Every structure is written in structure tokens, then in C-alpha cells.
Amino acid sequence: VCTCCLDVFEGALGASNRADLVAKAKDWSGRQDVDAIGDIVLPHFHAKSYKFHTAGREDVDVRMLGNGRPFILELIGGRAPVARALRKVNETNADRVEIRGFQLTDKKRFSVLQAGADSKRKTYCCVVWVAEKLTPDRVATLNSISDLAVAQKTPVRVLHRRTLLTRPKVIHSANVTVLNDHYMLLRLTTSAGTYVKEFVHGDLGRTLPNVSTLLGCDADILQLDVEDLVE
Question: Which residues form the Pus10-like C-terminal domain (predicted)?
């Protein structure tokens, strides 16, 4: 059996509108975007099957923007023109999934892919609600964040499938755009593996410090996008 590995980059992975986000959120296996690529590529390469490997992952209701997330599509058996498969995936999934940098690679890239998932910083854009008025002092508190050490216990929402641990993470920077007295766009740059939703609302005190404790009032996250992966 011949194994053909393709080093590709996915961009705007997930939903382009709110309706698609709702539909995607119902598929907790995360198979929708995998199938949107693998099932289309497979016949072009006359392969028997495929395996999909990514550099990390996001929740199903989080959009992947910017330059996208690196992944490797491993095809078992068969080859065909790469350009044709790339074009077909992008045409079939217009405004939903886009891949770029589609090229042949080798198995050495698997370790590089995993290393990137563990070491890259991420930039996020969050729509955040706060219970009390966003005063200049509160905005300044968030904007002053620089390499803030955060302790995150395994979130309640994933405790059924993740080991109970306290993970040290870092919020490298934050920037606030005030929308009105109670809503803001919060852009964060974090260390790999940070639970951003929990950093905002605190997860019943399981993530400390968090936006809620920093501002001295309740906070919650309404929408979350990954804007970029930073070397």
C-alpha cells in the first residue's frame, strides 16, 4: 500500500454565516470540514482511504480565519494531479472551506505539524458582554495585559473527555474596541492551548484570573474567531 501525504493549509475553516455555525455546532465529531476536503480529494487521487491530521483544533462554533490552520491529508494508495483536487475542493465549498498551499510532502512533516500546534501563539477576536458599564478604567485594565499568567483547570464543558489538570497558560496581549456600554470586541494573543471562552467568563472560578475578575463584574463571550496563528 502506497501512502501519499499532502501538506496543505486550510483557510476560513467552518462557517461563513450564523446559520451555518448553528448547523456545524450540532456535529460535535468535527467531521463536516474533514469530509468537505477528504471526500472530494479521495476520488481525484484514486485512493482507498484517507486520514486527516491538524495542528490543533477549535470548538465547532469557532471560525478559523486569517491564513488558516495547517493540516496534513494522508491518502492511502493512488495519486493524481494536485491542482485538480485543490480546485475541486475550493469550488465545491465556496465561502465555507478553502485550502491553499496544497503540495506533496513526506512523513517528516507530521512531527513539524504537531510541534507547531504546541508552540504557536494564536490571535483571537471575541464579542464580549459585561454586566457593568465599560468605563475607561476597565478598558485600560484589559489593554494593559502583557504576558499575564493564567491557571486553567480543565473546563467543565470538556471534563468528560479531558484529564482533570491545571494548565498554565499566558495571555500575551489584549486590545479592546468598545461597541457600547456593555459590549466590546476583545482581541487576544495567547499561548497555544488556551481556553479563551473560559478566560472570558471564568468557568465558575476554574480559570484565574479571567476577564470577569479583572473587571470586577460578570462577563460572557458571544462569538469567537481565530484570526491568526503566530510563529
Answer: 35-228
- Tell whether the model's pLDDT for residue 3 goes beyond 60: no
Burial class (CB in 10 A: 0-12, 13-18, 19+), 68: buried
Residue 87, all three cell numbers: 480546485
Structural domain containing residue 129: 120-230
Report pLDDT digits (tens) over 29-45. 345 566 667 777 777 77
Q: Are residues 63 and 152 in the same domain?
A: no
Beta strands in 66-213 (DSSP E): 69-76, 98-105, 121-130, 146-153, 166-178, 183-190, 207-208
pTM for the model: 0.66
Residues noted as catalytic: 59
3-state helix, strand, coil in the chain (%, to 5): 30, 40, 35
